[in-house]
Amino acid sequence: MFWKSTYNELIKIAAKPRSYIGIGAITLIVGIVLFAMYAEGLNFISFVTRPFEQSLSFEGNIMNGNLIAFVILQMLIIHVPLLIALVTGDLVSGEAAMGTIRLLLTKPISRTGVLFSKYFAGCAYTFVMLLWLVVLALVVGKILFGTGDLMVLNSDGLIVLQEQDLGWRFACGFSLAFLSMVMIATLSITLSCFSENSIGPIVTTMAIIIVFNILGALNVEVLQPIQPYLFTNHMIAWRNFFEDPLPTAKILKSVAVLLIHIVGLLGIAVYKFNRKDILS
Amino acid sequence: MQTEEKIIEVSHLVKHFGKFKAVENVSFDVFRGDVYGFLGPNGAGKSTTIRTILSLISPTSGQIKLFGKELYGNRSYILKRIGCIVEKPDFYKYLSAEKNLEIFARVSGVDVTRSKVHEIIEFVGLKGREKDKLGGFSHGMKQRLGIAQTLIHDPELIILDEPTTGLDPQGIIDIRNLILQLKNERNKTVLLSSHILSEIELIANRMVIINKGKTIVQGSVNDLLNAQELIVSFVVDDVNKTKQVVGSSSLNISIESETATTIALHITQEKIPVLNKLLCDGGINVFSIEAKRKLEDYFLKLISE
């Protein structure tokens, strides 16, 4: 019954027009970025490399598909949460707003089963969104700009990662980015359990992300104890896979913080959804 | 076929939302084979009671048993045997009628084939519209699809909460006929809530009336109605002569009102043919007899007490 219910949720997501807004937006934005990099990319690269040109000499195809994919991922990881929340924030509250939740919860499947079906389907949608982003950025980037070593600028300076060393880094980076987006999906689904309309959970999710981002960025002593535990500070942890040597402890801490948030929020969602009187 | 097997047992059900007392003390029993009328004015607590029976709302106190088992602890077992419409039938507007039925069939606890889906669609009179998206469906068509959804897993008990609300007269007749078909051809037990009392009178064999969250009366529709005095209007050619016949008879009938051609009398149902015979024997032409006081009046009388 659970998997049948999950299949139902996937059908619903696939049939909803709003599910394609995110896919369309990603396609459009990546397309624009790719076009801009194609037209002005060398200026962008020289802006990054200029400080090092007196001590280093750069050879080969620096502006390649790997670099383009890395840049696009950094840019879009900020906007993808909104596109994910647009669908996942609607999964429970949308049913309440439509009135279909009345029928759905009179079927012989537990409320926890219904919630987890929706959650799994939401995670699957998140996976597809992120995969589409990576495929567009990496595959189309490589087609347009070729391949080569990846030059990454971080707080310690410039790191050059060999092309043959990049596959696993992109795969692991994608996995951690997926985990952080699952965290967003979990947050919006949890908020969705408290609401009878679709807009509330979506807006609240974005508001929480913005507030947490500000709290995480403020250099105020009183906030420092909580800053390492704000999930927003771990949403760009995927970048750690593009450092050398690999900061394993930092990565594991980010995974732990994200997982704790996910489990905690799921617990709240299950508690609320099971005790909710269906009045819509 | 009615039996003495209790399908629904609701005992002293109470539901409070904060300080608001939606249901105060509702008790009733539905037997297998019943078309059971669940009556009450708007705000009486009908929908809250039905939602509680379907586990959509948790009760503050009281006991609910379905098919002889406690609802809480046997939810899946019970819901597998129930089909329902709660208030208006809402579906996924972006999916076709067929897809909507498949979605609900998939989580109904039984394997439902596509041919079964088509059979049910045909039964409710939506053949030819199964591929259409719900966005273009009228309220009546959605109501039919709602009934199709209740039948898709062949449940023993069907719960319909205000199924004729918002329908045009033809739609009401169609739904009424569908409910009678469910009872007569498919042997379903039906719990039917409504505030349109003539509906219940036409369809139900037993009923409960609730008001302000409390059970007022329950029993057989015929018994409850026959126990009540009717106001029957006789359209006759001579009202004065009719009054004389009524006054001289030993039927103990009182006059409610009169016009030039009509006399309204307080009379029990079994006395109507007796009086009619007396009038005819007295040479009075009786053009029509209309019972004015039916369940509506009974209902209004009860809730005003």
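qc> Chain B has two domains: 6-220, 228-304.
qc> done
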